Amino acid sequence: MNNSSVTITIDGETVEVDVGRTILDGCRSAGVDTPTLCHGDNLTPSNVCRVCVVEVEGSRTLVPSCSRPAEEGMVVATDSERVRHSRKMVLEFLGSAVDVSQARDVDHDSDLSVWSDHYGADPTRYGDQVAKSSAPLKREDDLYVRDYDKCVLCYKCVEACGDDAQHTFAIAVSGRGFDAHISTEFDAALPDSACVYCGNCVAVCPTGALQFTTEFDLRKAADWRPEDQHVARTVCSYCGVGCNLELHVQDNTIVKVTSPSDHDVTSGMLCIKGRFGWQYVQPRF
Amino acid sequence: MWGSNAREAHPIFFHHLMKGLNNGAQMFAVDPRRTSSAKFADVWLGLEVGSDIALANTIGREIIDAGLVNTDFVAHSTAGFEQYKASVEAYTLERGEALTGVPSGAIRELAHSYARADRAQILWTLGITEHHNAVDNVFALCNLALLTGHIGRWGSGLVPLRGQNNVQGGGDMGALPNKLPGFQNVDDRDALGRFADVYGVDLNPVPGKHLTHMFEAMESGELTCAYIVGENPADSEANTSHVRKLLSELDCLIVQDIFLTRTAELADVVLPASVAWAESSGTVTSSERRVQRCHQAVEAPEGARDDIEILADLARRLGYDWGTTSPQELWDELRSLSPPHAGMSWERLEAEGGLQWPCPSTDHPGSPFLHGWLWEDDLAGRAPAPFTAVEAAGPLDRLTDEFPLRLTTGRALDSYNTGVLSGSFNSPIRYGDEIDVHPADAERLGIADGELVRVVSPRGAVDLGVRIQPDLVPGLTFTTFHFPELADSNLLTNDAYDARSGTSEFKAASIRIERIGDCDG
Fold it and tell me: Residue B254 belongs to what H/E stretch?
């Protein structure tokens, strides 16, 4: 042991973790697969979704691995019966309450359904009586579509809009309990709100509740074909900061722009010009 | 942060700045507008347009007067302190307030906070450089860094934020009238000889003209042919009606661009180009001297070609075979000629996500900041950094009874330059084709929010809608330059320029506002 790292045990393996890093970081360096949904490398953990819970010896409750810092001597179990049962139920609760058909484990770049299958989660066993969210689709401009039927209230959009990146604070969680939902100030239409259309909320959304209009329209037309897309990494042309762009291209057409979350200039965040200013490459109107 | 609205012009840089503020850093915003950036500042210093040197000199005098000079650094690493001290002697806090309009208490607070800070940066953009005395403005800021030693160390420094993705790279590659790639001088015989050997031709050792001088040479008839690549001066230059006339009177105008811009409409020959960052591959260099790779994402439309291929084909027609047009081979040629780039192999650029020059050898990690030599015992054998005494001089476009209001220009968050590119998407937050007027001026002029008015400068007139905007100093108006089709604001701007940088006084035109109902027609 030294001052800059702690030693913990994960599923019987000894793992060194830098001080201040989380159990999830330890799992990753130990090669222990752990599902995540509300977690993002470029965001402060909000630990709301609970799919990443693990069992820590001596802890009464399961702990979210994404936010709990590793402590010297911790003994962690990620595949105990209790953990498997809890993850399964979390996935079932999410799946029975909202539409998770497009939800992604961003850290693994895989569909969340991979984990549902893994843990044998079956949302339908709660019956048809469960009230799913039924918010109207919001399409108030040419850039975003918001489908809150898919929202799991993971807070990632709120964090990206707020003090994790953009500092615009155009959206927050409004209401409590079953009424909790993402809202602009006074529920104003997005173009009338404080929103500056950086699209960082869309970029971090893990469930498809927030979608770029280009992607939404292609999905609606059943023409969104990730397997036919390639991604080219380049540099935005709109100022001198040097933001890297990932241009997602389908049929020689740019269909989405993202930035790598591990790029030290952007941390995955862009501005309205970088996110949407590419359209002159293929004018659509 | 001085003369920069990074929140809108460099939004992702501003994310980094916000991290600093969240960690307890202080921010002072010096800007005649209380911009969306300035709203995040601890203190906003709303100075009169063009009074930057008066403010900087006042800050310098206060630092000296309060005994806050980094005397060890000044003695070891700088030259000319006594002359500088004498030059700012007259800039007392009281006089500074009178010259700039900024309360003396705020100037004092900035001076003391900057000088006492462990680490401090001065960041600026075109609010400093688009003036007739732009170079003096920059010197005035450099003097403050030399006084306090806020230079050449991690976290401190002088940071001009670049406005385009490769304006740094353009200069680095020798797209300056007097420079070869790697900032070697055109009139340096040895350097020129090395290029001549590689290129296999004799090279002209006489420095060329910068853009503003080219327009003067067009006017005098000395310059009769222009080949313009990726620039839209018919919209972007100050006093555009004059510029358009000069361009249309050339014997031959060739324009290479991705769109038929207003400049291209004037051309005899138009060469359609592909979009450099999406339809071709290569490198660009960002504001922090970081060279990064661009990868082709899509095929260009039929007939649009890569800039390099067009240039090489043109050379071939003129009798010169340049051989390869492969970006990697051209980059390797550059590395062989430009020492700061020598260590940046194509593979390293790819694997390391970009490298910052100077990077003289392949085992060099690149340089996150410059001027560390100022802190070395022997200054790395260099001469100490000189103070440069500069005097305040307001805008050339003086306010008069005929033109009593100040007009300054700038960027809006969702738009870019003449709008050729940013006009392509339907932004829900677009603004900037209006003129921002302070409520007190609007009341005096009897004009209302949304009213169409005629804005008249000594050079032209434009009709613009009024946006009442309290975040200005009284007497100041503001518009953008993003919508030349709707609001041709550069018909108004002053083409007087700094003789050293060639940059026009975009930031300080004198105007008057007429009610449309009151003027003829």
Answer: strand B252-257
Q: Are residues B429 and B480 in the same domain?
A: yes
A162 touches B at CB < 8 Å = no
Beta bridge partners of A9: A14, A75
Is the complex ipTM more than 0.90?
A: yes
Domain identity same for A106 and A24? yes
Cβ–Cβ gap B12/A271 under 8 Å:
yes
Cβ distance of A234 and B275 shorter than 8 Å? no
If you search the block for the tokens 């504001």, which residue do you land on?
B287
B412 contacts: CB under 8 Å, gap ≥ 6: B8, B430, B431, B432, B480, B482
CATH number, position B437: 2.40.40.20
H-run or E-run covering B19 = helix B11-22
Say yes or no: B276 contacts chain A, CB-CB below 8 A.
Answer: yes
- Distance between first and last Cα of chain B: 44
Q: Phi and psi dihedrals of B408, rounded to 5?
A: -120, 160
A81 in a domain, yes or no?
yes
**Does residue B132 sit within a domain?**
yes
The pLDDT tens digits for B30-43 are 999 999 999 999 99
Please tell me which of the candidates A235, A269, A285 has its beta carbon nearest to residue B294.
Answer: A235
Residue A130 in any domain: the answer is no
Listing DSSP states for B310-330 in one string gives HHHHHHHHTT-------HHHH
Please tell me if residue A120 touches chain B, with a CB cutoff of 8 Å. Answer: no
Please state the pTM of the whole predicted model.
0.92
Same domain, A220 and A158: yes
B521: confidence class by pLDDT, cuts 50, 70, 90: very low
Total domains in the fold of chain B: 4
Q: Domain containing B424: what range? A: 405-518
Looking at the structure, tell me whether residues B277 and B359 fall in a common domain.
yes
Q: Is residue B434 part of a domain?
A: yes
